[in-house]
Amino acid sequence: MNIQFRKDERFRESFSYVNSDAGVLRFPFPFGEDRYMYSVNIEPHTRGGPNPAFAHAFDIDEHYVAECRERALVLADDPGRCQVLPHMMPAQWDTLELLMESFAADYPEHFSLEKNGDTWRWINRPLGIEQTFVFGRPETLPCPPFEYITRQAQGDFTLQDQRDDNLFVDGGMVTTQADWSLDFDIGMSFHEWHGPVPLAHDIGVFDRALRFLLRLQYGHPVRRLNWTMTINPRLDTSPENYPDWGPDRTTVTPDNVSEKVHLRVELQTLFRLPRSNAILFGIRCYLLSLKDIERVEKWRKRLNRVLTTLPPELVEYKGLTRYRDTVLAHLAPRDDGAPLSSGI
Ligand code: HEM
Question: Would you state the pLDDT for residue 343?
Fold first, then answer.
């Protein structure tokens, strides 16, 4: 599979981001029902699921090159978006190994990995990288191993250490986030970093999710979808640069709503790592404009129904308050109310 990369896309200022027709169809639309509420929606991350985006351990698509460039821009402004606590060095190497082996196996025309004992040779053709290094020796790479490999991947990653029957977010590469801060959360436990999420604590979602994750097995990764909405195709909606994007929420009008408003879906994957026993959490972000969502009849009707019935606490938490009514005024006339089959 030879992916045609859209190399010139920009996720800031002039916003030149667009999905091809195939890109629209592989969007992981998150709503299988007309109503949405938080749940422990975790399933095995098996290959060949219902959507091509689930076909590989780590999905790479037409936005790969542009997203890696965007990550480099964010890091140049704020190197603190990548932080790993010192005791997580074995998890850094675990991550590098998992990503390199997965990329090379799943996309052999774009990546290759040759091993000669501990001396590894890595080739990343889309980014023009060739690197020989010694596995386990950080000084043989241009930057620490977790940063090195996650600079070459789409989506954010965090590293969770497991101790005292809990998970602690002790590292991450976070440049593509939906309004949360690694710098603020680093070192927190599972319930602490989920502190701001409304309703889910009360209905036991986080107790159950943590119990499940503490038993996650090596070789049996899992996945879940999460979603929110973003104005403009902006990847970096971090608290650190809120002044750059927060005001965008006030700019949505009936004339521009279908171009400006994007559904933002996170394909979240969780992998137990072999040496460190840490958990790698991948947060792969997909953006699709309302205009493209409308092209799929079931998606536009379902989004209308989900947004109409969304609990007010979630509307507020996801930051939709300022523009949800404008989105609904646009979608409602395009929904005849006929029952939809469950599923995507
Ligand atoms: C939200 C991290 C796993 C459910 C969040 C937030 C963070 C986060 C940073 C934003 C909190 C804020 O507003 O500051 C992580 C990490 C995980 C993880 C590092 C890796 C172990 C899970 C799992 C579930 C889950 C397994 C399953 C139930 C949620 C939900 C939200 C959330 C429901 C609210 C999302 C929204 O409405 O947009 N998570 N999470 N998380 N997380 Fe997790």
Answer: 86
CA 195 to chain centre: 20
Query: What is the count of structural domains for the chain?
Result: 1
CA of 119 to the centre of ligand 1 (A): 37
Range of the domain at 324: 21-334
Q: Tell me, using a 6 A CB cutoff, whether residue 69 lines ligand 1.
A: no
- The verdict on the CB of residue 169 being under 6 Å from ligand 1 is yes
ipTM at complex level: 0.97
Per 3-state DSSP, the chain is made up of helix, strand and coil in percentages (nearest 5) of 35, 20, 40
Is residue 15 situated within a structural domain? no
Ligand 1 pocket, 222 CB below 6 A?
Answer: no
Tokens of 197: 């999420």
- Closest residue (by CA) to atom 20 of ligand 1? 281
Active-site residue, 334 included:
no
- Is residue 10 situated within a structural domain? no
Length of the chain: 344
**pLDDT tens digits along 217-257:** 999 999 999 999 999 999 999 999 999 999 999 999 999 99
Across residues 320-337, what is the average pLDDT?
98
Reference 18, options 287, 231, 244; nearest CA is: 287
Q: How confident is the model at residue 344 (pLDDT cuts 50, 70, 90)?
A: confident
DSSP string, 72-85: HHHHHH-GGGEEE-
Distance CA 131, CA 122 (A): 5
Segment 104-154, tens digit of pLDDT: 999 999 999 999 999 999 999 999 999 999 999 999 999 999 999 999 999
Ligand 1 atom 17: residue of nearest CA: 281
The answer to which of 1-10, 25-34, 115-124, 210-219 has the lowest mean pLDDT is 1-10
CA 226, 231, 232, 234 torsion-angle sign: negative
∠ CA 81-85-88, rounded to 5°: 115
Q: Does residue 238's CB lie within 6 angstroms of at least one atom of ligand 1?
A: no
> How much is the average pLDDT of 51-72?
97
Determine, yes or no, domain membership for 4: no
* Within-domain flag for 16: no
